[in-house]
Amino acid sequence: MENKIKRHEFLKSMGLKGAALLAVYCGASSLSSCKNESVSPASSVDFTLDLSNATYSKLNTTGNYVIANGIVIARVSATAFAAVTQVCSHENKANVIYSGGGFYCTQHGATFSITGAGTNANGSRGIQAYKTTLTGTSLRIYA
Ligand code: FES
């Protein structure tokens, strides 16, 4: 449990640094190139989580989520998962979580559907979503 918390804090601090760097970049460029920059690391996303591993086993229960490699992965039903980038499209803060059946940014409250569509004003740009495939206890997250 303690390791898990440290890992989350580590990932969070990494995410915030990444977001801060991105903000600097965005300040000197157009919005469209800013958007491309935030999406580019995402296109190489392809990793697998072992749901029998204690770190990720909470994904065996509907409503839970984990954050791995900057991606928020949620168990949205008995048979389905959803995954989106942790970096919000509103102001590029790495504060997206899963809550109440959708994705939610704790920074200013942007909300997104499980497919990444924006569902309120701050979330109106939507958010990069990823595919998921469960094989046995291996959950693959990929672009
Ligand atoms: S950065 Fe996510 S709502 Fe503003």
Automatic annotation (TrEMBL):
Coiled coil: none annotated. Keywords: 2Fe-2S, Iron, Iron-sulfur, Metal-binding. Residues 71-141 form the Rieske domain. This is Rieske 2Fe-2S domain-containing protein. The lineage of its organism: Bacteria, Pseudomonadati, Bacteroidota, Cytophagia, Cytophagales.
